[in-house]
Specification:
Layout: H1 2-6, E1 14-18, H2 35-48, E2 55-59, H3 67-70, H4 85-96, H5 99-105
Parallel strand pairs: 1-2
């Protein structure tokens, strides 16, 4: 995760993050939910004036239990059935937020 953030091409003003597990009205989409943060960032660019190059959509791979993707889709590339949400979230927060905010959240 740190490597992705360090290699991003420009400074980032806004990050929209999903784990794809609870997409309103659609359920657990896993990695197929990546369109949600991308769509939200498009809205922020158009409506709020963020520069597109200074946005970062992210998907935390915390696993999926959706049988449609896990068992029936041979090309599904995400971890399956892991219970890693808190672990991924803690690492993400430590890497992206200032220490003072992270210590208050955790």
């Amino acid at each position: 995760m740190r490597q992705v953030l360090d290699n991003w091409i420009s400074d980032v003003d806004i990050i929209v993050v999903t784990d794809g597990s609870r997409i309103l009205g659609l359920g657990d989409l896993g990695a197929n939910g990546m369109g949600i943060p991308v769509g939200k960032l498009i809205l922020y660019v158009v409506a709020a004036g963020f520069h597109p190059a200074r946005t970062l959509p992210m998907l935390l791979d915390t696993g999926s239990t959706n049988k449609k993707y896990v068992e029936e889709d041979p090309f599904y590339l995400v971890c399956v059935g892991l219970n890693t949400f808190e672990y991924c979230l803690n690492i993400f927060l430590m890497l992206c937020l200032p220490d003072s905010i992270v210590s208050e959240i955790m």
